[in-house]
Model the fold of this input.
Amino acid sequence: MIPEFDVEIGYDYELADLRTDLTTETVAAGFVEHHDYQCLGLPSWEEAAECLAREAEILERAVRSSEPDGIKEILSAVQEGDDVEFAELMSDFQWNDVGVAGVSLALSAARTATFYSCSSGLDNHHAKYPMVGVVPDAERAALIAELAERAGCGIGQHRGRWYVYAKSVTALHALGQSILVHREAFDALPQPMWVEGLEEELERIDNY
Done:
């Protein structure tokens, strides 16, 4: 099984109030108060597709599991069997939670600034239900909002940033797949200003 959470799906946002002050430096180092901030960089669509495909495999297995949280069962089994294999598996998801890693990478490939993700779960999670934090520009936001509604995901806005959420990680995974399908529409938009020099800034931080 994959856990489902009791959350009302809604759409509470204003495109005009989205943050427009992000810089290369703030995206690289962190622009929110969330702990463990990690910039996902500028992944390619191919990298996002690989992550989503790997995630789909685990979600399909989790659905067939009789455990209340099939994802946790699968990951625990891998970790107990081989720590190295577990580390390699999680590196495929850039150590983000399975179920939200795919959409996070897809959003980053679409050139939005992600800043938070949590799959939620039956224990030891920060969020009460699955969600991803992201700051898109207005044009990308309009596309994402349309795709989110189709996938059954909600959107909340706080201090100019979005929290995209769902009753289950399956909806967020579906959103990630939909973003991937519509990648040409995202690529046709002008890149945000913070994209230029981001990889170099991340390398500088890593070498600091």
Summary: The mean pLDDT is 93. The longest helix spans residues 45-64. The two ends are 43 Å apart (CA to CA). The beta strands are 11-12, 113-118, 131-135, 154-158, 161-165.
